[in-house]
Amino acid sequence: MDFRFAQYRFDTATLMLWRGEEILALRNNEAKLLAYFLGHPGQVLSKEQILDTVWAGKVVSEQAVFQAVSNLRQQFGEDAIKTFPKKGYQWQIALDTEAPASDSHSNTALDGVSPAALAPSPRRLGWWVAGALGALFLLALGLLFKAWAPAAPTQQPVPLLLRIQAPAQAALGAEFQAALLQRLRAEPALQAGAAPPEYSEAQLMAAPQHYARALFEQPASTSAAAPTSTAGLLLTGRVQRHGDQLLLSFSLQGRENRWFGDLSAGSAAQLEEQLAALLRRVAAQRVLWESKDQRLVNAQLQLLHSEAPQSLPILRNLVGNLLAIGDSQAAQLRADELLQQAKQAQDLPHQVHALHALARLALEAEQTQRAQDLLDQALALGRELQDARLQALTLERYFSVHLIRQDFAALEETLLQALRLAQTAQNPARESELLFALTLASYKFQLDTKQDFYLAQTRALFDKLQLPSWSYAELEFFTGLNSATPAQAEQLYKAALQRFAPGEAAPAKERAMLQLVQLYLKQGRSAEALALVEREPKPNAAELLLLARIHFTQPKQQGLALQKAEAAFRAGNLAGDYLTTLDAALFLAERRLADGAAEAAQPYRDYIGKNATPQWLRQNQAALKGLQAKAKTEPD
């Protein structure tokens, strides 16, 4: 059932909220509460009614209702929900007259909501049990996406800018791009064009997220909080001949996320049609490109894979996403599936990528020799294909093998070999990545002369390619992270931050600020940490959480710390930044339990139990064990 109000549309069957064509993030319980309000316009709903309906089968406190109402007000405005003391809450925003009325014969106020959304769960889930339920959560998300994943016929075409080259055969690259551009312009769902000539291939390949945002984001208006995105995609790729086949390796970059793919065909026309068919399937799926929440991305990829199980590019990116969220078991199954399908199709590039994924999983399982054997197989396939790009990529994957073995000489020799292959392939973007890796290795092994040499070499190549400030900041952040001394790390973090203006958003800036604040707090330099974050005019969720951590270290500022953490929790939820939201939930749960307020901590513990990914659980294992131990000491 659809409800429309103001500029919003809400579907109670899928619990999805739209503002225009933009999908907005709501937590599950907030979405169910919104459905309850909209299904009972004009009624004052008591806390008891809300708890019995939205949290059916769960034991939670009234704080859960307060928090959910507060978060809905954060989304729709303070006047959206009116409080009637000792009576309850009433929805205030008028529904469109064309919106369907609620069914008076429904047995539940949430009629139409999927059973998975209403299923009861225990009040106190063990953290590892909660992690095991992650697969069921992703399945529910996949079913949820089924309702909206296909692009609506009236949807605006997706802007797509492309740059395809063939450095060793310039004419082939130019001819293929021209023909591909003509083919894609015939697609109603795409608005295809060539990437601006002022940006080189190396720039677009080395810093795709920066250029995707620069090309597609519109400046904020005086009333907007942030630039708006037109959901554009930047496609960069390389085409080459291998025997009687044409091979295309490409990447698709959206505002937040990047996709990789390899296609092959006997003719240019067949290759163009393959790419067009893939773009028809994936380009309009905005969650793939614009969501920070990799669980939602995963659900969309699972759905796409179920619809096109033989698509190797879709399966490859599903494997990559599972690795990113840390679901090793599912990643192992899908990587094996990718390898078998690629073998059946005699698709060497996807065999190489499957072996890369399996090698990474072997390293996670501390099977270093197995990882090396898998990479040896991948390298042999790259040589069989005579693809210097794939060979260089595989050699770069040996980085972790040599690092675990503490063998800098072997690591340096391997990466220099990859560097020579990248130069042979005329791929300066890959060269920059390899020099970046050599710089990091020299810092990890604390080799002063190597540090200076490789850092200078990397910066010189960045200068030559005219890469944006993001690239330099990433370099300075990671070298700072691997510095031997706090003073050296501080210098590099500051260098990274100086590349951005206050209010400017970039992942490298956010990471550098976090590390520098943590360094300051360890050294008792709270005032400097506070000044660093407060220079941001409109702090995002991550910056609000940093403010919470800083205030918590100050006497008599614990209350302010909790306010900032709660603001971070809400802002992260609304922005789809689930990692920051999880971090804020952990901070709040720890603080509430430390104060003896077990009931106030429970909604945050529930959120973690329902939303934590395996990767996040592993990274926060010690804190979660401490939290669980503390909770056991609290009376039920």
Key features of this structure:
single chain, 636 residues, alpha+beta, Arc Repressor Mutant, subunit A, Rossmann fold, Serine Threonine Protein Phosphatase 5, Tetratricopeptide repeat, five-stranded mixed sheet, four-stranded antiparallel sheet, 31 helices, 13 strands, globular, membrane
Topology:
Layout: E1 2-5, E2 8-11, E3 16-19, E4 22-24, H1 28-39, H2 47-54, H3 62-76, E5 81-84, E6 88-91, H4 115-118, H5 127-132, H6 134-146, E7 158-165, H7 170-184, E8 190-194, H8 201-206, H9 208-216, E9 217-218, E10 228-229, E11 233-242, E12 245-253, E13 258-265, H10 268-282, H11 286-290, H12 294-307, H13 312-325, H14 328-344, H15 348-364, H16 368-385, H17 388-397, H18 399-404, H19 408-424, H20 428-444, H21 448-465, H22 469-481, H23 486-497, H24 507-522, H25 526-534, H26 541-552, H27 558-575, H28 578-594, H29 598-611, H30 614-619, H31 621-633
Parallel strand pairs: 7-8, 7-11
Antiparallel strand pairs: 1-2, 2-3, 3-4, 5-6, 9-10, 11-12, 12-13
Helix pairs in contact: 1-3, 6-12, 7-10, 12-13, 13-14, 13-15, 14-15, 15-16, 16-17, 17-19, 19-20, 20-21, 22-23, 22-24, 23-24, 24-25, 24-26, 25-26, 26-27, 27-28, 28-29, 28-31
